[in-house]
Amino acid sequence: MAFESLTEKLQNVFKNLRSKGRLTEEDVKAALKEVKLALLEADVNFRVVKQFISSVGERAVGQDVMNGLNPGQMVIKIVNEEMIALMGSETTELELEPGKTVTVIMMCGLQGAGKTTTAAKIAGKLKLKGKKCLLVAADVYRPAAIKQLELNAGNMGVDLFSMGDKASPVDICRSALEHASNNGHNVVIIDTAGRLQIDDAMMQELEDIKRETGVHKTLLVVDAMTGQEAVNVAAAFNDRIGIDGVILSKMDGDARGGAALSVKAVTGRPIIYVGMGEKLSDLEQFHPDRMASRILGMGDVLSLIEKAGSVLDIDEDKEKEMSRKLKKGKFDFEDYLESMNQMKKMGGIAGILGMMPGLGMGIKQQDLENAIDDKKMARTEAIVLSMTRQERQNPDILNPSRKHRIAKGAGVDISEVNRLVKQFEQSKKMMKQLPGMMNGMGKKGRFKLPF
Amino acid sequence: MGLFDKLKQGLGKTRENISRGFDSVFTPNEIDEDFYEELEEILIMSDVGVNATGEILTDLRARVKEKHIKLASDCREALKAAIEERMELPEGAYDFEKGKAVVLVIGVNGVGKTTSIGKLAHIYKSEGKKVMLAAADTFRAAAGEQLSEWADRAGVDIIRGAEGQDPASVVFDALQAARARNADILICDTAGRLHNKKNLMEELKKIHRIIDREYPGAARETLVVIDGTTGQNALIQAREFNESAEATGMIMTKLDGTAKGGIAIAVQSELNIPVKYIGVGEGIDDLQRFDPEAFTEALFDRDDEKEENKDADT
């Protein structure tokens, strides 16, 4: 998959960047080259990428490298921050008109973006907030579009307004507004037909609806899988009709969703919701930070960097001591315990794996937990804790009588104690044979400890 | 209007976007790194993707060297050839249309499966075949109604199930009906599904098994529908669908917009799933068999377009 090669590449770039202190131009350039590829793979528009990269580059050169990060990681950190800032630093709410005014919301977008489904989802959300919504079926073109909205409205328990597919959309919307004020609805959501942004007649129709009904919020629905085209679509809709917010649909797929950045960059409008599933309840708030790391395609590698950094700050000496011991093959149960504690600080194995790029998205949490059992780790810890200090430092003295005592103390069967000791001896042997491997591993070394 | 013209008209925007860029690049200057960089930009802007773009450019460099091309303006043919080669259809790509066939149409949500099926039915029907449709999208609200509408327009029979019914059972019923009524081609609509939803992909496998078991004599064609506006995710989509349902071809839809559909080049060159049909509009006639030569030709040929515009004016 694209992710893997990308992360590998990044890692290689980082390896070569060893300078300390401030970010030099070369550091920035090397890291940004990979970031550029990452963004293009994520379908961020080429021009947007170029602009973004050059502005980030300017900001990054000369910055101090944070403790515990290498220059490459530092650049990624800056990229991430800039991306979050660009997408709007916080979540945006869909604002409704104050008082008794009926808020009119119009959905628009290309064919198949997910307008009808999203319209119903928004109605359902607002209903929960105590609003009385009216869904308006203004797609008179696509076969069965009205029926689809009708069924969705029924599922949500929201009222529907339809005049069939013979009336003009503008007339339908006008009548719908009347209907709404007569029946005490406070939000009207217009579902329009999908259209190409270059279809003049169809774009005119949206303009007419907006003018005739005084639409308050025009929401553009964009498929998260959209490619380079996203900028053209967003710019055209925004220029012609004026949009107030964006909804990113089909985010439950594995598209990296670079379209979000493109759309935001060309329209300046906030992304309000993301569609996370087929069910009508799967419409979620947009989180710029999550989106940024998804687009970068580095999983939450950044939070891994940050977490690792904070752990490192305290334990840097211990870390050095341990890698020295590892290299010499002098590794005892005390160290075993220590590395286990560090692991726990970082959220256990499952937590760490979840943060790794490519893994986080591809593997379900459930599968992860089945594969690696944090509970098993707790049992292991109990066994080690039941040893005396002498036993931990010198595992060779463990005889059957000691093992019995340990098993009792830990509340496990003696076979488990035997297994652990055996495993430990084996991995110790392995480490002795592979001193070369340890050199290359550096900071990552502790993740490969034999649990 | 000939097929080529129609394709060209459909691809007008695609071509305009790619070609406008190409024209500014193919200047009578010497080939330098800037030239390749500009080409790279244009190809990536057309969703061709970083990898496929790299391959095409490597290919182009080789051709340039081999043919001792000096000027950028002389690269046009070489680039055309490099792209066209990647878009070639394998032999017998449309053989399934000749005998009894079951066509399974799959894809993610909102790419235009149902619409494409309506148009496919129209093509086959107008070629004198007996066509039947199976509405096996029992999930999306009103999907069955939508397909019925298309069946009416094309004048073909349709087998429907109830909303929420097991799609495989609808396919089963349709297969029996197709055999009983001696239909030539049965086209099955399926619910849109994201390729990372495992259980839904399993469902496709089940449908496949049923087709094989219940109608062993028929050719089985599995067409993945890809939205022409889709970016790099289309590669993953095509790969996943191919793994669970052995895709034999692609339908590229929505090429009447400004989308460049360059992802087709990426999918075909990386996964070897050929584009067999392209959708270039909302009308029932707006689905065409894919012609790689015309596709590439249409991408580049600027002069013809000008002539065509003149013709239209007079």
Brief overview:
The complex is a heterodimer of chains A (451) and B (314). By secondary structure, chain A is of the alpha/beta class.
Topology, element by element:
The complex is a heterodimer of chains A (451) and B (314).
Chain A: H1 2-16, H2 25-41, H3 46-60, H4 71-86, E1 103-108, H5 115-128, E2 133-138, H6 145-156, E3 159-161, H7 169-183, E4 187-192, H8 200-213, E5 217-223, H9 230-240, E6 245-249, H10 259-267, E7 271-275, E8 283-285, H11 288-296, H12 301-328, H13 333-345, H14 348-355, H15 359-362, H16 365-371, H17 374-385, H18 389-393, H19 400-410, H20 414-433, H21 435-441
Parallel strand pairs in A: 1-4, 1-5, 2-3, 2-4, 5-6, 6-7
Antiparallel strand pairs in A: 7-8
Chain B: H1 3-10, H2 12-25, H3 33-45, H4 50-66, H5 76-86, E1 101-106, H6 113-126, E2 131-136, H7 143-154, E3 157-160, H8 167-180, E4 185-190, H9 198-214, E5 219-227, H10 233-245, E6 249-253, H11 263-271, E7 275-279, E8 287-289, H12 292-300, H13 302-313
Helix pairs in contact in B: 1-2, 2-3, 3-4, 4-5, 5-12, 6-7, 8-9, 10-11
What does it look like?
The complex is a heterodimer of chains A (451) and B (314). Chain A is α/β, with parallel strands linked by helices and 451 residues long. Chain A folds into 3 domains: 85 residues, Four Helix Bundle (Hemerythrin (Met), subunit A); 187 residues, 3-Layer(aba) Sandwich (Rossmann fold), CATH 3.40.50.300; 148 residues, Orthogonal Bundle (434 Repressor (Amino-terminal Domain)). Helices cover 58% and strands 9% of the residues of chain A. Chain A has 21 helices and 8 strands. Chain A has an 8-stranded mixed sheet, sandwiched between helices. In chain A, helix 4 packs across helix 11 and helix 5 packs parallel to helix 6. The longest helix of chain A is centred in the C-terminal third of the chain and has 28 residues. Chain A is elongated, with a radius of gyration of 29 Å. Chain B has 314 residues and is an alpha/beta fold. Chain B folds into 2 domains: 103 residues, Four Helix Bundle (Hemerythrin (Met), subunit A) (Up-down Bundle); 195 residues, P-loop containing nucleotide triphosphate hydrolases (Rossmann fold, 3-Layer(aba) Sandwich), CATH 3.40.50.300. Chain B is 52% helix and 14% strand. Chain B has an 8-stranded mixed sheet with strand order 3-2-4-1-5-6-7-8, with helices on both faces. In chain B, helix 3 packs antiparallel against helix 4, helix 4 packs across helix 5 and helix 5 runs antiparallel to helix 12. At the A-B interface, helix 2, helix 6 and helix 9 of A face helix 3, helix 7 and helix 10 of B.
